[in-house]
Design goal:
Blueprint lengths: L3 H13 L5 E12 L9 E17 L4 E6 L5 E5 L13 H12 L7 E7 L9 H16 L6 H16 L6 H8 L4 E6 L5 E5 L5 E7 L7 H19 L13 H7 L6 H25 L3 H17 L6 H12 L3 E7 L6 E7 L3 H16 L4 E5 L6 E2 L8
Parallel strand pairs: 3-5
Antiparallel strand pairs: 1-2, 1-12, 2-5, 2-6, 3-4, 6-7, 8-10, 8-11, 9-10
Helix pairs in contact: 2-3, 2-4, 3-4, 3-5, 4-5, 6-8, 8-9, 10-11
Catalytic activity: alpha-D-galactose + ATP = alpha-D-galactose 1-phosphate + ADP + H(+)
Pathway: Carbohydrate metabolism; galactose metabolism
InterPro entries: Galactokinase, Galactokinase_bac, Galactokinase_CS, GalKase_N, GHMP_kinase_C_dom, GHMP_kinase_C_sf, GHMP_kinase_N_dom, GHMP_knse_ATP-bd_CS
């Protein structure tokens, strides 16, 4: 039976009538804890997962870039130019945006035949776009010896997302898929980009990723609303505190000065942000001590805060967490990402994963009316060369 690398090499040969000279992989990511605090100068704890984007590449002498994804029907061929602009809404804009930034930085590129395949569930909030950007950036950096550091690639990929694609997002996604390490979570300071790799040996547990399969129609408008509310809270606290971000203070300091925030809704938002930032520090300590029970407790506490104080959950995400609390093989669960749909994660004993998936799906179907999608992942490595033996070797 062919492994995924061999299947992709065969597909490349069929598509371009020649072997692929290079193969790369960039993962998706989940945020283990630390939600809605990245834009408040706080700590987040993402990790790379074992789903991601595969890219096979060979140079061509035709002066063109050819893009094909096994996930979509369409193919794209564009001539090598000095710059590019976004065209339409197709997936090809992500690699074109990366190419545009390389050219803008003054690098000389040549024509390439490129075959992509992603096994990240589309629309799940597991950072498929960052995965495509980073694997493209890494491959160009390797092939054309452009000398970018990992951090350079993170910043370039974020610029593609913000300035070429036109989506306002933070740096966590690109950072996690670039710097991710097997069995390590990244405790990242979103303000300074300082980070610490935290030992995260899950032992006999796996990371269950549960896609609620609910379209996140509310997420963007509510996201902007929460950013504004956090800004209002910060201004109120700055009357007496010399701080730049809400996460510059801890919970005891917040409790001392929270009377300055007179709007009760804004007060709840700020309370979540400050307490969640403290939870990330506690979670890092629990993981590094291999205390998965404490880490699971913090996951549940994080979800409760996102549900009650930040109000970005919903009946779908809540149903996943409600069921998880009844299953003795689950250490903890929480929503992950922006909320209002998307994904939840749970720490589940590997031997019980199939039973968990089956029982959760039945519970969710009964409560919500349609089924979730449940995946099992480990904590994987960041972007790199695909190590499997190619089919044509």
């Amino acid at each position: 039976m062919l492994n995924i690398s061999e299947k992709l090499h065969a597909a490349f040969q069929k598509q371009y009538n020649k072997p692929a000279d290079n193969a790369f992989f960039s993962p998706g990511r989940v945020n283990l804890i630390g939600e809605h605090i990245d834009y408040n100068g706080g700590l987040v704890m993402p990790c790379a997962i074992t789903f991601g984007t595969y890219l096979l590449v060979s140079p061509n002498n035709d002066g063109v870039f050819r893009f094909k994804s096994l996930n979509f029907e369409d193919e794209y061929t564009i001539p090598l130019k000095k710059s590019y602009e976004k065209e339409g809404t197709g997936w090809h804009n992500y690699p074109i945006g990366v190419i545009h930034h390389f050219l803008k930085d003054g690098h000389q590129l040549g024509g390439l035949d490129m075959l992509y395949y992603g096994n990240i569930p589309i629309g799940s909030g597991l950072s498929s776009s960052a995965s495509i950007e980073v694997v493209t950036c890494f491959s160009l950096n390797q092939l054309f010896n452009t000398g970018y550091t990992k951090l350079d690639m993170v910043k370039l990929s974020k610029s593609v997302e913000n300035n070429f694609i036109g989506l306002a997002s933070g740096i966590m996604d690109q950072f996690a898929v670039t710097f991710g390490e097997e069995n390590k979570a990244l405790m990242l300071n979103c303000e300074t980009l300082d980070y610490k790799a935290v030992d995260s040996n899950l032992g006999d547990y796996v990371l269950a990723i549960i896609n609620t399969n609910k379209l996140r129609r509310l997420a963007e408008s509510k996201y902007n609303e929460r950013v504004q509310e956090c800004g209002d809270a910060l201004k109120a606290l700055q009357q007496q505190l010399d701080i730049k971000n809400l996460c510059d203070i801890d919970t005891p300091t917040f409790n001392q000065y929270k009377h300055l925030i007179t709007n009760p809704i804004v007060l709840k938002r700020a309370q979540h942000v400050v307490e969640e930032n403290d939870r990330v520090k506690l979670a890092a300590a629990a993981l590094s001590q291999n205390n998965l029970a404490e880490f699971g407790r913090l996951m549940y506490a994080s979800h409760d805060s996102l549900r009650k104080l930040y109000e970005v959950s919903g009946k779908e995400l809540d149903a996943v967490v409600e069921y998880s609390k009844t299953n003795k093989n689950v250490a903890g669960a929480r929503m992950t990402g922006a909320g209002f749909g998307g994904c939840a994660i749970a720490l589940v004993k590997g031997a019980a994963f199939e039973q968990f998936s089956k029982e959760l799906s039945a519970y969710y179907l009964d409560k919500i009316g349609y089924a979730p999608s449940v995946y099992s992942s480990l904590i994987g490595d960041g972007v790199g060369v695909l190590k499997d033996v190619p089919a044509h070797a």
